[in-house]
Design brief:
Layout lengths: L2 E4 L4 E5 L4 H10 L7 E5 L2 E6 L2 H21 L4 E2 L5 E3 L3 E3 L3 E4 L3 H4 L15 E5 L6 H10 L3 E5 L4 E7 L2 E5 L13 H6 L6 H17 L1
Helix pairs in contact: 2-6
Length: 211
């Protein structure tokens, strides 16, 4: 087992040679706290304690998704950082995730089993200091069709094609809108109050719909 520790601005531990049993044991041990986030992929484990900056961005992008759904009158089911697993292979906890097109298949369920149920339609990843390589691989294994990623500077829409994610300009979940503009809203988030930023984004969405 080897490890690499990065301490700032969020605490991250990378471990290799980890068994599935160990991963599940750690999940159970840490289930009483929301501080740590675990990502497992084929023996590699990342344990992260998110920073306030990370949590702020994930909350903003999640709220943007909800605003889009409200303005477009779409039903969504936000499942936050639900743990999704492919037993013995991979497990992950998105920063935010949403069922949109597949909402009818999971409504009313208290547990999601990816052997029977579809994956989330949209995952949000805030990737300020850590590499999302293994996390993207986890979501590809699950069949997640779309990931929104923000690295502190650039917002990208990533679509699954032939088992890999490619960067595109248009969202599958919310087509026909120039959502790469979200990057500019996030860059301005430090100078805006939270609700002010959300209102400005909502107004922008309305202006795009009316065009």
């Amino acid at each position: 087992m080897t490890s690499q520790i990065l301490m700032q601005p969020q605490e991250i531990v990378h471990l290799s040679g980890i068994s599935w049993h160990t991963y599940e044991s750690l999940l159970n041990e840490l289930s009483t706290t929301s501080r740590f986030r675990l990502t497992y992929y084929r023996g590699n484990l990342e344990i992260m304690a998110p920073s306030p900056e990370h949590e702020r961005y994930k909350k903003i992008v999640g709220r943007f998704v909800e605003a889009l759904a409200e303005e477009l009158e779409l039903d969504i089911d936000p499942l936050g950082s639900t743990t999704f697993k492919r037993p013995e292979i991979s497990g992950g906890e998105p920063d935010e995730c949403f069922y949109i097109k597949n909402i009818k298949f999971i409504q009313g369920k208290t547990r999601i089993n990816l052997e029977q149920d579809p994956p989330p339609d949209l995952v949000v990843e805030i990737d300020i200091t850590s590499s999302s390589k293994d996390r993207f691989a986890v979501y590809a294994e699950m069949g997640v069709p779309e990931i929104w990623r923000y690295d502190g500077n650039v917002f990208t829409i990533n679509i699954l094609e032939d088992g890999k994610y490619i960067v595109v300009d248009e969202s599958l979940a919310f087509p026909n809108l120039p959502l790469t503009e979200i990057s500019n809203f996030l860059k301005n988030s430090g100078s805006k109050k939270y609700l002010e930023l959300v209102r400005e984004f909502r107004d922008w969405v309305r202006s795009q719909i009316q065009e």
